[in-house]
Design brief:
By secondary structure, the chain is mostly helical. The protein has one domain. It contains five helices and no strands. It is a multi-pass membrane protein.
C-alpha cells in the first residue's frame, strides 16, 4: 500500500532551461565573417559540428541550419569571387552578404522564440 502512495506523489520536474548562448555566438561569428573574410565563420562551423546532436530537437535544427549556412555561403561567396572577373561578381557578393544577414537574423529570432528556424533545408532564405 505504501508503494501506491509513493507512486501517487510523484513530482514531475520541468525540463532544464536550454542555454542558447552558443548558437547565438555562432550566428554572431557568421555575421562577423563579413568583415573578417570568413575566418570567424570557420570557427563557427567547427563549433556547430561539435555541438550538433547534443540538445533538444529544435536546438539541433539550429546547428544543422548553421552548418548548411556555412557550406552554402561558401559556395555563394566562391562563385561571386570567380565572377568578379566579369564584374557581375560584385553584385553577387552583395546578394550573398544580404542572404547571410537574413539567415542569421532568422536564426536569432528562432532562438529567442525557442523554436527551430524555418525552412532549414532551403538554399535561399
Amino acid at each position: 500500500m505504501s508503494d501506491n502512495l509513493q507512486n501517487d506523489n510523484v513530482v514531475i520536474e520541468s525540463p532544464e532551461p536550454v542555454d542558447t548562448t552558443l548558437p547565438m555566438v555562432i550566428y554572431a561569428l557568421y555575421l562577423a565573417s563579413i568583415v573578417t573574410g570568413g575566418l570567424t565563420a570557420l570557427v563557427g562551423v567547427v563549433i556547430a559540428y561539435v555541438y550538433r546532436g547534443k540538445g533538444p530537437e529544435w536546438l539541433d535544427q539550429h546547428y544543422r541550419y548553421q552548418v548548411r549556412t556555412f557550406w552554402i555561403g561558401l559556395l555563394y561567396f566562391c562563385l561571386s569571387g570567380v565572377l568578379m572577373f566579369v564584374l557581375i561578381g560584385f553584385v553577387l557578393w552583395l546578394v550573398a552578404v544580404v542572404w547571410l544577414v537574413i539567415r542569421c537574423v532568422k536564426g536569432f529570432k528562432g532562438l529567442q522564440e525557442k523554436r527551430s528556424p524555418e525552412n532549414v533545408d532551403t538554399w535561399l532564405v
